[in-house]
């Protein structure tokens, strides 16, 4: 749903963040799946995490959107976070500064997967990840968790949003093989085109493969932005402020 397979995109008759959330709910009905939590969409700003800033905004050109979304099907759950960029009039891609921020978040994902070993505790993995991030000059946070039977399933956690360096009890559990994890995290990056530092928040589901390979992403990961094209770019005619047409591109 986040990256529609139709090459012509998905026409969305909406202009506010809550409209997008309910589009997801309606789309799930057509696919005969449910969810374990309501989709959360927000416009990313320096203040948009933690908290609810940006979740009631009117979407406009130049916005960076964040989607936290999961489905329930066949007795299992998913938990994924992706980002989308709303193109301004005349743009064909996201600014380079935003793309560099996503690459930095991808690098943190690589670090987490490289440190996850069956038998280590969640806190051991967290400490090693934070140390490697510091060595590479990356600021951010890791808060990954098991997934599967439940959205936030039983097992060792690797950080919490409110416990960024050590998690009592759940962080002291060993990571088990033959499990699924949501690799959830963010990386800070200064975006020169916006003159601000943003959190690039991503989440992908990973599965245990083998002792040699460890965990790998179930369905790849986001390495480029979902692009959203508005009918008018950043300029919205006064008579149409209540109804904007968006096209979510597949590339």
Shape: globular
Please state how the strands of the largest beta sheet are arranged side by side: 1-13-12-6-3-2
Write down how many β-strands occur, each being a DSSP E stretch of 2 or more residues. Answer: 13
Give the rounded overall mean pLDDT.
Answer: 87
- Unreliable runs, pLDDT <50, ≥5 residues? 5-11, 233-251
Q: Structural class given helices, strands, pairing?
A: alpha+beta
Main sheet characteristics:
6 strands, mixed
Order of helices and strands: EHEEEEEHHEEEEEEE
Distance between the termini: 13 Å
Q: Total helix count?
A: 3
Strand portion: 25-35%
Rg (CA only): 19 Å
The percent of residues in helical segments reads 10-25%
Describe the structure.
This protein has 251 residues and is α+β, with helices and mostly antiparallel strands. It has three helices and 13 strands, in the order E-H-E-E-E-E-E-H-H-E-E-E-E-E-E-E. The protein has a six-stranded mixed sheet with strand order 1-13-12-6-3-2, covered by helices on one side. Helix 2 (96-115) packs across helix 3. It is globular. It starts with 9 loop residues before the first strand and ends with a strand. Residues 5-11 and 233-251 have low confidence and may be disordered.
Quick gist of this model?
With 251 residues, the protein is of the alpha+beta class. Helix content is 20%, strand content 29%.
